Request: fold
Amino acid sequence: MIEYQVFHQDGNARAGKLDSPHGSILTPIFMPVGTLGTVKAATPEELKKLGTQILLGNTYHLHLRPGDELIRELGGLHQFMNWDGPILTDSGGFQVFSLAKLLKREEEGVIFRSHIDGREIKITPESSIGIQQNLGSTIMMCFDECLELPAKRERIQSSLELTTRWAKRCKESRTSDQALFGIIQGGGEEDLREESLQQLLEIGFDGYAIGGLSVGESNEDMYRVTRHIAPQMPSDRPRYLMGVGEPRDLLEGVEAGVDMFDCVLPTRNARNGSLFTSRGKVSIKQSRYREDPEPLDPDCLCETCQHYSRAYLRHLYLSGEILGMRLNTLHNLHFFLNLMRNAREAILENRFSKFKKDFLEQYLQEESM
Reply:
């Protein structure tokens, strides 16, 4: 199981520590996404050097390939991928509804076709927990239904009620000592978010997540919902905003009282040549960097910025070199992890609002140029 303690608050922003059987996590924290048991283009050793405290794996993907039973036979996901720190596994709910070809949604669970080979697969709350127990993750997520927004209120209501029933079945089927988080649904309806939270509190979980955001709604709607529901979530449990996002999204979430974040953005963008810097995003493929001898971000202390020029990174990207993807990935991950480290320090020193304002003024001003 896990234990969570808040050390300090600056407004709603929280600095805390999550203790787990696989190590401690200082929050707020960004979790790099290792969907298939690997953070693309980075080794576990490199991730540790960057200061990564926890990784995210995915139930849906690992169940399909190489198979959760094989991973269990080989010692669990930690041993399989050579990562001894905490791992959180997503339940697969988002992937079932966004990636796979959904054939049927029913009370029992969902039936879908694999995006890999087209075979028909059924996942229920019970089987999702069984897969996650085979993986041996530190934190498991309840199986939920994730709607694309916007959606009609009646559909959102029925979906959150189904998610609650599935959450109850998830908890009842757990036989391990792994932590289990419930997922709050409710779309953009603030009262439905409250209803979902209250239903989950009656069941009782080790942590609580805000799900169903960053799925088509506007940024302002995402911020509004997060600001509304996060302060109402239990103060003695970790608060997790799922699948978010851009640097501003993270800081808005921290300000609302969120502790944990994940997103594929830093690694996916890195492979596409889109790099995050203190002065906004850089598209390294642009011709203006062809002869640029300067580091990607003069304020960054990552190895990419310390040793390589923008011209070289552009050359690697245009040449399709694997090294370019690796250097870009290490930089982007360093940027996100360092952003959370700086946010925590600002919270502890009661200056988070100023930190957020100063960061965004520079980041958004330069990005818009």
Notes: Residues 41 and 326 are 5 Å apart (CA to CA). The chain has a mean pLDDT of 95. Residues 270-367 form one domain. The first strand starts at residue 3 and ends at 10.
